[in-house]
């Protein structure tokens, strides 16, 4: 479980995050949603410590990340997996070398144990027969799956994904969403995903935080989102007419 309490963050004179509080649950896909520029990436980067917050607290299973020294933070970072935009695979490494990379950096496992863990993670994301290929030789969807395999290779307690579906077609996006969701449930991870993809919201939104202009505007789950009376949320959700129709159909049933 990750808890953020009264988070503030500004750059120069621009207040980007204003008093955000939220509990992100273990074993659930927690989504941060909002329009482009609303502060989602800054919030995610603040939670993982890539930005220092100006005020507020970030607690990882009650461990206060905000007041932690660098040594403890470094240790805690090893419990985090990250899938950032673009996948960020190393072009010069093969698929299996990419997945093994965090193990080479941070684990004391033998080479046989590493190979077993790499094979387990690639199998978990349904990648077979591509171990020796380079990222340029596989599709965008496969690259995403390799990035996910790499993000779970150290058995993280926490998983962060920034727009995991960017650049993917709707069908592949759904595969990636389902994959992240099932990994989250099976491995009991606390997963936080940034997205502005309403399809993802409706498929895997267990616990949703909607931010608007850096402020916390609404929280709930995918069942509640279509029926919320919150006006800013409605403008965001029903920008896609398909969801207006789904709601109207359900109301008229
Ligand atoms: N390092 C920075 N320095 C100054 N301003 C920044 C910095 N990073 C982000 N911002 C500003 O913070 C605001 C929120 O940006 P952020 O990237 O978090 O939005 P977002 O909701 O993730 O958008 P998108 O969905 O387009 O990725 C924007 O106005 C952006 O210009």
From TrEMBL:
Extract the GO molecular function terms from the UniProt entry: ATP binding; ATP hydrolysis activity
Gene3D superfamilies (UniProt xref): P-loop containing nucleotide triphosphate hydrolases
What SMART domains does the record tag this protein with? Answer: AAA (SM00382)
Mention any Pfam family matching this sequence: ABC_tran
Per UniProt, which keywords does this protein have?
Answer: ATP-binding, Nucleotide-binding, Transport
- ABC transporter domain location is 2-238
Q: Report TM segments.
A: none
Q: What is this protein called?
A: Methionine ABC transporter ATP-binding protein
Q: Tell me the organism.
A: Aquipluma nitroreducens
């Amino acid at each position: 479980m990750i808890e953020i309490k009264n988070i503030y963050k500004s750059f120069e004179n621009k207040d980007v995050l204003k008093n955000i509080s939220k509990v992100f649950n273990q074993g659930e896909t927690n989504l941060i949603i909002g329009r482009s520029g609303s502060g989602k990436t800054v919030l995610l980067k603040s939670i993982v410590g890539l930005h220092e917050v100006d005020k507020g607290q970030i607690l990882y299973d009650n461990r206060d990340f905000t007041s932690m020294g660098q040594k403890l933070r470094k240790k805690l970072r090893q419990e985090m997996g990250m899938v950032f935009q673009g996948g960020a695979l190393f072009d010069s490494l093969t698929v299996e070398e990419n997945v093994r990379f965090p193990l080479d950096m941070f684990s004391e496992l033998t080479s046989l144990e590493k190979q077993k863990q790499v094979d387990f993670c690639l199998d978990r994301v349904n990648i077979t027969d591509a171990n020796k290929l380079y990222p340029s030789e596989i599709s965008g969807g496969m690259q995403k799956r390799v990035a996910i395999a790499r993000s779970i290779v150290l058995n993280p307690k926490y998983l962060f994904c920034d727009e995991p579906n960017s650049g993917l077609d709707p069908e592949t996006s759904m595969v990636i969403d389902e994959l992240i969701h099932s990994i989250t449930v099976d491995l009991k991870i606390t997963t936080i995903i940034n997205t502005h993809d309403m399809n993802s919201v409706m498929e895997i939104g267990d616990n949703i935080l909607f931010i608007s202009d850096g402020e916390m505007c609404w929280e709930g789950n995918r069942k509640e989102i279509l029926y919320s009376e919150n006006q800013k949320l409605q403008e965001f959700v029903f920008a896609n007419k398909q969801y207006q129709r789904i709601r109207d159909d359900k109301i008229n049933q």
